[in-house]
Write a structure and sequence with these properties.
By secondary structure, the protein is an alpha/beta fold. The chain has 22 helices and 17 strands. The strands form 3 sheets. The protein has a 7-stranded parallel β-sheet with strand order 1-10-9-6-2-3-5, sandwiched between helices. The protein has a 7-stranded mixed β-sheet with strand order 13-12-11-14-15-17-16, with helices on both faces. Helix 13 crosses helix 21 and helix 14 crosses helix 15. It binds fructose -6-phosphate (F6R). The site of fructose -6-phosphate has 14 residues, from loops.
Amino acid sequence: MAATNSVEAEQFERIKTRIYPNSSLACSELAREIVELAQSRARRGKPTVLGLATGSTPVGLYRELIRWHREEKVSFREVYTFNLDEYFGLPPSHAQSYACFMQEQLFLHIDIPSDHIHIPDGTLPRQKVFDACKRYENRIVELGGIDLQILGIGRTGHIGFNEPGSGAESRTRLVSLDSLTRRDAARDFLGENNVPRYAITMGVGTILEARQVVLLAWGNAKAQVVARAVEGEITDSLPASFLQRHPNVRFLVDEAASADLTRIRHPWKTGEVVWTPALIRQAVVWLAEALRKPILKLTDAEYNEHGMAELATSHGPAYDLNIRVFNELQHTITGWPGGKPNADDSVRPERAKPFPKRSIVLSPESLDDVLWMGGTLSRLVQQGNEVTVVYATSGNLAVPDPQAIRAVDLVLEIEKNAGEGARGFTQLARKVKDQFLKKSPFDSDSADIRRVKGLIRQEEARAAGQICGLNLESIRFLNLPFYEAGHYRKFQPTAQDADLIAEVLDEIRPHQIFVTGSHADPLSVQGICFHLLERALLSLGARPWLRDCYVWLYRGSESEWQSWEIEMAVPLSPGELAKKIQGIYQHQSQRSQTPMVSDKHRETWQQAEAINSATADLYNRLGLPEYAAIETFKRWSPGATGEAGLK
Ligand code: F6R
């Protein structure tokens, strides 16, 4: 990566931002800092007051603090904590309450006295909330104020639950949650409809009074909002931007979350850079996109006028640069994602030989595969490769109750009509139906309910796979144990999970593996599955087949790879795109349970279509052929995750 931490590179940043290769490194550094702070204050006979956040972001930090306690015998007896927020209406016993989250993720594992812990009370009657919020603030003041406040950031730019519109002076109070925030929490609550509408949160003003603030952000989903908070204007439409006013604030981000900062996105604007081939490609594509001109029409004058004179002088003229990058992009396009047999493959993304290839698509949950590479999958099959789709997890946590109730009702109906037929499954259906009758929307699913939900997802995956041309033997379900035993944000993968992946890999000995590239959030199912694959590959060590195996990453999050990152672009014809949409459509349980009313809430297939067509449009604008849609991939290279990679 071209970024440096030099002052020059950071000139656009109004908040000190440190970029780490991965979140684990950032968490271990910050945990050490917190331990040192607490120890040095304790030596002076002073307690330490920490402001804490929940969500996926700080979990790695909490694990490190627990490690300090367990392994280094660090004590937290003199630490007081104030949590930022709590859902309104949820008691601490509720699995999704922040009180429960904090107990499970931190407090139960360290020696902090329970009366040192403060979390807003979500169970108060409304008329008592105002006074309780005041008392919360007073208690912070009584304890001498917050020494260090940990924050995450929501995609709306919220800190705590201070959604857009929250003022810089806002205090601890009852707020209503933004629809995007509720959508992001939908998985935790097994459906958006179950997500509380209100929360109690510390105010922006309360947060700004902490002596030190550290905001953490991981993953590309946060890249845009991080850049706006760090480099944009201060505005209440992005409450995190108010942090620019704090005298002692830092952002710690991983590489994925730093992607939109000027020093990463346009490093040449921040000073002298080393023009690597990758950076040249990035700069030329950026210029063409900024001017909305095809690459081959860029002129020397345009390079000069846009701060790229040095590039044009050292690697130009424009004509040469244009041709070079145009060719590179052109060579990413291939209709043969498994390699084209008997063709010159010197400038193709995949090798011609061996043919056919054994290809594995490792899909963390069913739907990831069709969503991100449905067209490529169909092509691989159609072109004669031996494709196996391996679904790592059952995905049962993502099935809304009404879908499962309909399924068991159907089984019961079939039984009624079939007389003395299949007993076992109808017994299960009846049991599950009883369990549903007793279950409230906030309760966790029983093992039986999860089994039925898992079966629903398997059936959907088979239907979608068949549309992509797969036969049923080519579809495997691993039902990895970490998922079956866990819940979102609380999964605990083990070596057994990695071994199960290693076993399939070693059985199939693939020439290609396709897997999600969305692994920056180490708690997400995608992140966990990616890291399990990584462990599985490491455990397989020097297997000869591994030396000849390419790993292709599809993006697997809300946007595509950046145009300059793409290493394989697979065009889809209108017919192939329609087929892919039909495949996505088979995943009925993953469709929104209510009709979509605004463009902001698009169906999954619409999002996929929009992303794939936008990539095609972009290629076309850059001067490349006009396709209906394009799916893209990047090869996994060593160090790309900050951990061991392959290439
Ligand atoms: C949680 C909180 C929120 C989260 C933010 C990011 O206490 O205050 O502001 O920090 O929503 O959530 P994650 O970490 O789950 O991406």
